[in-house]
Amino acid sequence: MFDRFLFSLIIAVHSSGCADEEILALQPQIEVTPRRLAFGQAIIAEPNVLKLNVANKGAGVLSFESISVSEGADVFTSGQYPADVGPNQSIEVDVVFTPLETRKPYTGVLTIRTNDPEEKQIDIPMDGIGGFRRISVEPRSLDFGTVDEGAGRERDIVISNVGEDLLTIESVTWTSTSTDLRAENVVASAIMLAARTSTTVVISYHPADRFSDSGTIEIISNDEMEPRIEVPVFAKANLAPRAIAWGCQTVFGQIGCDGEDKGRRFSLGVGQRVGLDGRESFDPEGDTIASFRWEIVEAPADRAGLVFHNGDDIQVRKRATGDFEVTDVGSYVLRLIASDERGIPSLDTPESRIRVAPRDLQVLLRWNLETDVDLHFVSPGGRIGDYGSGQIGTSTGTDCSWANRGPNWSDVTSKFDDPRLDIDAVSSMGPEITSLNEPQEGRYGVFAHFCDSKSLGGTTSLTVEVYSEGQLIESIDSADLMLSLSPGEVWNVGEIIWEPDNSPKARFDANMQPEALYRPELCLTQP
């Protein structure tokens, strides 16, 4: 019986030892990091948060009795947390510091109570200081360097509150005697900058005179260390050259517009030229003009208009002089660009532009053989074949054509209102072009004659286009009228009716039942 009791006792003792080891093995073990919460300088009256990591390194469940602020509860608070943390798990708890006064140091204690048998209570010391305002201004000096006229430049001055308390910007004042330097977003009345925010003052520089420019930004704030800050601003201009463009009548052998009346507005027909002269251009700072360029900035069609330079224009005068030729009916604008030795181009000003308007009336004739077809433009009351003396500028013949290229019509004292044969095409398919400025009221006849001066023979169809002040008002194809011309035949195309008081001023009365009349004598100077 004794042996049996001893065996039972041994078993009981052995069983009790296993239970204790099992109970010990299932205990939680708390680990907290960091063991001190140092908030440093913190934003006044705003929550400043740090994270506290609580881990369970044991095998049992870690249960919280409380996580609370035991000291300093007026400025420190703790966030939410779960009731339990499982084995080998962790949580983060937000701890918040809300300082009330600037520059004041604060301390506190966060107390953690759990079921950890070894550390039932852990105290975490906390400290921080109420932040203070602090101004930052960047840059402290602003230099634009050399800025080209016409380019312009902007730079920012950034005013920041890099502290942790509200900063009051009482005023931002700009002072300068220069109108080329300007400040935007200056502060006329006080503004508040919260911690870690900023405002920007924009300084712009658009030079228009040759002098150096400067100014000062003055910033007044409630910053305790730097209540007044001045930012000097400097800039220097590189003025663009001044392009002075002139045009004139072209004369063989002339240089630019030497000896000719100069202007900036012209009325030209297709094939006519205007002389170009930009030698009056200058650099306001006295530098040398390094190069010139004439640019067609407006034209009736792509690639319309041509600018010509001879060898001396290029080598001696750097393209300051040359000629412009009208290639298509319509309006043109030429711009002269003069560049200095830095490559800075001149500004686009009225003095740098030449305008070429179309003549009031223009008639174009084309055909489909490489032969000689003549355009005849007849004044009101005139007749086809009336060539007068044929002398340009003095003939009073009423038919402007190959034998009377520039008669004197209307005002005999002026050439402006005279018609002219702008292009006489004798061995191509045209166009042959006649134009007129300031037509008198009335009906102008339009004829086409197949002269066939090359004796090619055959027949040809023709197209006539009529333009009023650069706008196409009529296009007539003889093929649409079932008409073609043989050598010596003439087509009465129709009449242009000019009514200066109407809009549009011109309209075309086409001859819709044409016939080809044999008039070979029109090819003679005295028909």
Low-confidence stretches: 1-19
Content-based structural category: mainly beta
The share of residues in extended strands comes to 35-45%
Radius of gyration: 48 Å
Shape: elongated
**DSSP strand count:** 37
- In DSSP terms, counting alpha (H) and pi (I) runs of 4 or more, how many helices? 2
Share of helical residues: under 10%
What kind of oligomer do you see?
Answer: single chain
Overall mean pLDDT stands at: 90
How many strands, what sense, and barrel or not for the largest sheet? 6 strands, antiparallel
Distance between the amino and carboxyl termini: 168 Å
Can you put this structure into words, describing what you see?
There is one protein chain. With about 525 residues, this protein is mainly beta. Helix content is about 5%, strand content about 45%. It contains two helices and 37 strands. The protein has helices at about 1-25, 310-315; strands at about 30-35, 35-40, 50-55, 60-70, 75-80, 85, 90-95, 105-115, 120-130, 135-140, 140-150, 155-160, 165-175, 180-185, 190-195, 200-205, 215-220, 230-240, 245-250, 265-270, 275, 290-300, 305-310, 320-325, 330-340, 355-360, 360-365, 375-380, 400, 420-425, 430-435, 440-450, 460-470, 470-475, 490-500, 505-510, 515-520. Strands 28, 29, 32, 35, 36 and 37 form a six-stranded antiparallel sheet that branches. Strands 2-9-8-4-6 form a five-stranded mixed sheet, with no helix packed on it. A hairpin with a 2-residue loop joins strand 33 and strand 34. It is elongated and about 135 Å long.
